[in-house]
């Protein structure tokens, strides 16, 4: 439905977006996830038409878009700061795009009313935009875009300015809205949790390039490279060199010792990274067979769960290990300095290139 | 020892300094209204008696009325034209990167600091060369030269601070560039534009040098005042006239400054 083909963008000598190709399906909630400067916003602005592509094509339903100005594209956008028109009240903001479509006043009023209903702000039509809270402005911005029934809705960090509670509530509402309307949403965010919560698929961007496109679970469980593994969730990386002894392959790992691998390493003798998620470790208070010995260096209590930082021999930084925390008897309260043993299942290990 | 009242407490020394500063600045001007109500012809203490006769007298002077309307016509034209010209210019300066922009903008602002005398002589020379007959039109042209840099300097900070994503939103919602300008850029910046019009009106209305060099047989109000200074018995009437002009100018400038502030806070309010 939306095809981004070999799109590049350079500002002078700076390559902001490098050869990005994406296929986004109709009705999909798609996210562009990346740190600031990764090129995600530039890519979104090229889709909207605010930036020209340096090279490449952007197609919507097979029609080339890259040479059209923004007002001719079947796309609407929710801006990062909402861009609510300060000189217009709520209903005039929402009806802004209807004027040039030649829709009768009465019909406009009916459509605006419907939108106000949808964003749960009925009766707010005559409010001044300066009287709106951040969350309300966000809803008005959504209504103003959706009233035009766009094929694609672009959202540029729409929840970034809201506080944590409101943000989580709006995430649920956004997802519900998208599923109800069936419009393709493309979201730009630097918040990996937000991308995982909302999206059908996520494109992770770094240095102007897309480094992996996958479902949220796919990104988390099968990161394609170190950057994705480090950016999505927390990940422990262990430097390892692969060795072949006879038929089996093992990795000499800094911190975890020599590990037999069931994975299929293509390059023996190479230095690689073994990556293990904090929640894949099991932590024991007494020695267990095959367990790696360590010592709790620090504890990070997060309410319903906690992260224990375990120092192990041969690794400079401690290993992050997730452990449950509940009201009745937390075995790790005050456990700093205590010796512990770590075990993990073999299939929890992901083998990655070090760079 | 004095109790510590906090880092941001009012500073009395500074307050006194500011009061003295304002007093010295406005003391000479204060004499104008005072003596305009004095029944004596000569400006000297003690005051003789209170009168409104000088104000009444103004309304019986036909040349004064003519000069006043000339000045109003010129000021209105200058205010409108220079604002219309300055809006796109200031927008372009605020928006676009172009090579040599900084020196070009400084060059445009130069008439702000050039002596009016020099500008007047220069324009007179040029217009003479071109064979243009001096009239109120040439005065208007001269005032435009002076007012344009003022107009741009009033508008520029507004446009620089203007949230461009509002225009992007308008384009995104289907409006082509000119309609976006009409529906978003203009209404969002109207306080600045109005401030610009008031400011240029005041400058043109009070201007003397350009009018002196470039006017034909018809004169402007400041020229009329200068001409009447020769007659001592007319002086109190001039004081009355000056008082009215002062009030009028103060009102305009005050409104213009208020306007730019009002609009700016509304704008930032919408950006949060």
What's the topology here?
The complex is a heterodimer of chains A (355) and B (272).
Chain A lengths: L1 E10 L2 E11 L4 E6 L5 H9 L6 E6 L2 E2 L10 E4 L11 H5 L10 H14 L15 H13 L5 E5 L7 H18 L2 E6 L2 H7 L2 E6 L2 E6 L1 H6 L4 H6 L4 E10 L2 E6 L3 E5 L9 E6 L5 E3 L7 E10 L3 E8 L6 E6 L14 E5 L6 E3 L3
Parallel strand pairs in A: 3-8, 3-9, 6-7, 7-8
Antiparallel strand pairs in A: 1-2, 1-4, 4-5, 9-10, 11-12, 11-14, 12-13, 14-20, 15-19, 16-17, 16-19, 17-18
Helix pairs in contact in A: 3-4
Chain B lengths: L11 H25 L16 H6 L3 H34 L5 H9 L6 H15 L5 H26 L3 H8 L4 H12 L1 H17 L2 H6 L6 H8 L6 H37 L1
Molecular structure report:
The complex is a heterodimer of chains A (355) and B (272). In chain A, helix 3 crosses helix 4. In chain A, a hairpin with a 3-residue loop joins strand 12 (248-253) and strand 13 (257-261). Chain A folds into two domains: 2-231, P-loop containing nucleotide triphosphate hydrolases (Rossmann fold), CATH 3.40.50; 236-352, Beta Barrel (OB fold (Dihydrolipoamide Acetyltransferase, E2P)), CATH 2.40.50. Chain A is of the alpha+beta class. Chain A is built from eight helices and 20 strands. Chain A has a six-stranded mixed beta sheet, sandwiched between helices. A five-stranded antiparallel beta sheet of chain A has the order 13-12-11-14-20. With 272 residues, chain B is mostly helical. Chain B has one domain: Orthogonal Bundle (MetI-like fold), CATH 1.10.3720. Chain B contains twelve helices and no strands. In chain B, helix 3 (62-95) packs parallel to helix 6, helix 3 crosses helix 9 and helix 7 (165-172) crosses helix 8 (177-188). The model of chain B is unreliable at 265-272 (pLDDT under 50). Classes of the chains: A alpha+beta (355), B mainly alpha (272). At the A-B interface, strand 6 and helix 4 of A face helix 7, helix 8 and helix 12 of B.
């Amino acid at each position: 439905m939306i095809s981004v083909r070999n799109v590049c963008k350079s500002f002078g000598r700076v390559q902001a977006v490098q050869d990005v190709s994406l296929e986004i399906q109709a009705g999909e909630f798609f996210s562009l996830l990346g740190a600031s400067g990764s090129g995600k916003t530039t890519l979104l602005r090229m889709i909207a038409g605010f930036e020209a592509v340096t090279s490449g094509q952007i197609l919507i339903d097979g029609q080339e878009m890259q040479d059209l100005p923004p007002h001719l594209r079947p796309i609407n956008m929710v801006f990062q700061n909402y861009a609510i028109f300060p000189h217009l009240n709520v209903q005039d903001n929402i009806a802004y795009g209807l004027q040039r479509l030649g829709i009768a006043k009465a019909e406009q009023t009916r459509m605006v009313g419907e939108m106000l209903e949808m964003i749960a702000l009925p009766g707010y039509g005559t409010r001044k935009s300066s009287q709106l809270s951040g969350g309300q402005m966000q809803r008005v911005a959504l209504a103003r875009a959706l009233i035009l029934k766009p094929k694609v809705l672009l959202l540029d960090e729409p929840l970034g300015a809201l506080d944590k509670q409101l943000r989580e509530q709006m995430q649920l509402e956004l997802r519900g809205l998208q599923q109800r309307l069936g419009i393709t949403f493309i979201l730009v965010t630097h918040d990996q949790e937000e991308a995982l919560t909302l999206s059908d698929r996520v494109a992770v961007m770094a240095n102007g390039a897309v480094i992996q496109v996958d479902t949220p679970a796919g990104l988390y469980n099968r990161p394609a490279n170190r950057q994705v593994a480090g950016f999505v969730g927390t990940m422990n990386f262990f430097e390892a060199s692969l060795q072949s002894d006879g038929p089996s392959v093992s990795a000499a790992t800094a911190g975890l010792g020599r590990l037999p691998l069931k994975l299929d390493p293509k390059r023996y003798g190479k230095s690689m990274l073994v990556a293990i998620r904090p929640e894949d470790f099991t932590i024991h208070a007494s020695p267990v067979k095959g367990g790696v010995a360590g010592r709790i260096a620090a504890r990070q209590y997060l309410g319903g769960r906690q992260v224990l930082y375990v120092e192990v021999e041969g690794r400079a930084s401690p290993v992050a290990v997730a452990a449950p925390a509940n009201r009745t008897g937390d075995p790790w309260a005050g456990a700093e300095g205590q010796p512990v043993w770590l075990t993990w299942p073999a299939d929890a290990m992901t083998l990655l290139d070090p760079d | 020892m004095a109790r510590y009242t906090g880092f941001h407490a009012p500073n009395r020394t500074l307050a006194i300094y500011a009061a003295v500063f304002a007093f010295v600045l406005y003391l000479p001007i204060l004499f104008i209204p005072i003596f305009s109500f004095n029944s004596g012809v000569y400006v000297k203490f003690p005051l003789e008696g209170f009168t409104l006769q000088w104000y009444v007298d103004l309304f019986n002077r036909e040349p004064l009325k003519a000069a006043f309307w000339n000045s109003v016509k010129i000021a209105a034209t200058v205010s409108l034209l220079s604002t219309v010209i300055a809006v796109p210019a200031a927008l372009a300066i605020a928006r676009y990167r172009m090579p040599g922009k900084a020196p070009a903008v400084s060059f445009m602002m130069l008439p702000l600091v050039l002596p009016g005398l020099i500008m007047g002589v220069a324009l007179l020379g040029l217009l003479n060369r071109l064979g243009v007959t001096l009239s109120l039109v040439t005065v208007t042209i001269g005032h435009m030269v002076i007012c344009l840099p003022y107009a741009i300097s009033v508008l520029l900070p507004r446009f620089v601070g203007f949230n461009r994503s509002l225009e992007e939103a308008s384009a995104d919602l289907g409006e082509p560039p000119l309609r976006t300008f009409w529906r978003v850029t203009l209404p969002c910046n109207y306080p600045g534009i109005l401030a610009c019009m008031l400011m240029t009106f005041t400058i043109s209305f009070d201007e003397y040098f350009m009018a002196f060099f470039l006017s034909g047989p018809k004169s402007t109000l400041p020229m009329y005042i200068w001409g009447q200074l020769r007659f001592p018995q007319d002086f109190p009437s001039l004081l009355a006239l000056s008082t009215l002009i002062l009030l009028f100018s103060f009102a305009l400038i005050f409104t213009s400054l208020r306007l730019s502030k009002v609009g700016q806070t509304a704008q930032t309010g919408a950006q949060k």
